[in-house]
Amino acid sequence: MFTTEFLDLPPLAAASGTITLPGSKSISNRVLLLAALCEGSTAIHDLLDSDDTRVMLAALRQLGCQIDQSGATVHITGLGGRINPAHASADLFLGNAGTAMRPLTAALSVLGGDFQLRGIPRMHERPIGDLVDALRQLGCDVRYLGNEGYPPLHIGQARIAIDAPIRVRGDVSSQFLTALLLALPLVAKTQSITIEVVGELISKPYIEITLQLLARFGVQVQRNGWQGFTIPAGAQYTSPGSLYVEADASSASYFIALGAIATRAKGQNAIKIQGVGADSIQGDIRFVEAARAMGAHIESGPNWLQVSRGSWPLKAIDLDCNHIPDAAMTLAVMALYATGTTTLRNIASWRVKETDRIAAMACELRKLGATVVEGEDFIQVTPPAGIDAWKAASIHTYDDHRVAMCFSLAAFNPASLPVRIEDPKCVAKTFPDYFEALFALAQPAPGTVPVLCVDGPTASGKGTLATVLAERLGYHLLDSGSLYRITGLAAIRRGMDISEANAQALADMVGTLDIRFEGMTVFLDGDDVTQAIRTEEAGMNASRVAALPPVRTAMTAFQHSFARLPGLVADGRDMGTVIFPNAPLKVFLTASAQKRAERRHKQLISKGIPATLDSLRSDLEERDARDMNRSVAPLRPAQDAQLLDNSELSIEESVVQVLDWWQGKQPFSEK
């Protein structure tokens, strides 16, 4: 998962391959609560691992549930419809998870106790008053600890009295009705309970999910259209034993859109999405219909979808999106690639989600050059008027996972402009590895993967600087100085003779090496070889390998392969002059021989290795002379390199300077 301040996406051109989606957030948190309310144990398979499910699991543990987790499978021993007195007082933090806050509010209110429910500041701006009003009709003790109508809440002991139907508004959030449907079977012991929906019920497909899952746990709700729901007397939750969570249909929308807008990589198949298909119980699967209407070609099976470009450009649509409120955000970005104006209607619920999504989408779409009209419950999007009207934009994500994910698709713009996604880690709410999944499918426009080169003499600190820069930018790292050492080690491990007679075989081996740099750690074929490549023997083998011309030629091509999405920081002695001469930023890092000797001396002494400053400085000066005068790729700054003498700079000061240079080369506009 990317945890950087921002993530820059270079222009993307094509996409193909297969993606297996994470579990549905809506199903995951409903099932967790239902299993917790049951008697006995429930095995839940393919559970979504995200911020929202983590806060729900943490809350259930605080309430006394025994939870055993192994990978994507969770075993929950339920509470049997009651709270043990030892756990009847708790302070529950629920983040920004509406699928945890609303249902837990209802369930704990009817069970009674001494509970506080709170979240992040945005959760305290999301309305809950209509649910609280409905619970108070039952005799529940729910009080506001802050602003009236909003969390945080205090829940006390309930005095349940079922004298009349429970009335709840349906036009703000379907989660209010879902919360009541999940909670009321706990108190329908001797008489049935009816819920009457006031006003139009929005997001009906999410209620369908709730009803189907209630049935899986033994409660058959009687429905009178969409206005009345009756929990029968004697309703009791029973565990289904085990249950599989469908992949998230809302998350599928980004990859359906990807298949609709991206060309295929040459010789490759369309985008195949595994884990959810046409028979999904999730309402957002109807995004498929909307994507087809815009021109996507989609095939489907019981647990898969396959998507490719159909009509191009896409076709603008005018659609009532009440049935796909979350996935409809993806349509707003697809509208950037359509001919004409796309209108998405009946989306008032966007205003009370993780952020005011209508306002957020309008603001960010305009940054890209689109013309947008927003209303209380609709948005109209007209794409930029030609390639020249597109703008490179820094997308503010409002701590909203869906804003971040859907705007990543703007990197496929016809103007081949990069897109910056601010706070990419917000996708952890539902899809922590979203960007990794996108990069596994997408291919950049040729020559557009950004590379930042850090060259310099021995002991200048270029490796440390490059490592920190890669972490800050979320880029891959190439420690070129280790490659010949790793190659020599790989040859020895494979029983290959390091000799001129075997030069071509060694060169062929280079392209097969699985090398990964993570911070200061080096991996070869999955093994940590950081220490193994620092031995005297490894250094000698590296020199023998590097002397072979076919190996040097193969190594150049191999180093180019490290330039992968979303970008690369490469350090060495010839990164900016020979390997990546077109890199947008080249830094030549140096320090005086005296200062470098002092740093090396400090390192060696800390490891218990004896050394003298004079000998170290002399050695560095001799090595500098050799490197600068060698016939192949002599050590020197690239003509357009930024020179950075870090003799008197800390690592952080050097990082700040380089990042400032990097930002100065970016085209992103806030307007």
Q: What does this 3D model show about the protein?
A:
By secondary structure, the chain is an alpha/beta fold. It folds into three domains: 6-22 and 248-444, Enolpyruvate transferase domain (UDP-n-acetylglucosamine1-carboxyvinyl-transferase, Chain, Alpha-beta prism); 25-244, UDP-n-acetylglucosamine1-carboxyvinyl-transferase, Chain, CATH 3.65.10; 449-475 and 566-671, 3-Layer(aba) Sandwich (Rossmann fold), CATH 3.40.50. The chain has a five-stranded parallel sheet, with helices on one face. It has a four-stranded mixed sheet with strand order 3-16-18-17. Helix 1 (25-37) runs parallel beside helix 2 (51-62) and helix 3 (98-111) packs parallel to helix 5 (174-183). The chain is elongated, with a radius of gyration of 29 Å. The two termini are 28 Å apart. The mean pLDDT is 93.
SSE diagram, text form:
Blueprint: E1 6-9, E2 12-15, E3 17-20, H1 25-37, E4 41-45, H2 51-62, E5 66-70, E6 73-77, E7 89-93, H3 98-111, E8 114-118, H4 129-138, E9 142-144, E10 153-155, E11 166-169, H5 174-183, E12 193-198, H6 204-216, E13 222-224, E14 228-231, E15 242-244, H7 249-261, E16 271-274, H8 287-294, E17 297-301, E18 304-308, E19 314-315, E20 318-320, H9 328-334, E21 338-339, E22 342-345, H10 357-367, E23 371-374, E24 378-382, E25 393-395, H11 401-407, E26 419-422, H12 434-441, E27 442-444, E28 451-455, H13 462-473, E29 476-479, H14 483-493, H15 503-510, E30 515-518, E31 521-524, E32 527-528, H16 536-546, H17 549-560, E33 568-572, H18 575-579, E34 585-590, H19 593-606, H20 613-629, E35 642-645, H21 651-664
Parallel strand pairs: 3-16, 4-15, 7-8, 11-12, 19-21, 20-22, 25-26, 28-33, 28-34, 29-33, 34-35
Antiparallel strand pairs: 1-26, 2-27, 4-6, 5-6, 8-10, 9-10, 12-14, 13-14, 16-18, 17-18, 22-24, 23-24, 30-31, 31-32
Helix pairs in contact: 1-2, 1-3, 1-6, 3-4, 3-5, 4-5, 5-6, 13-21, 14-16, 15-17, 19-20
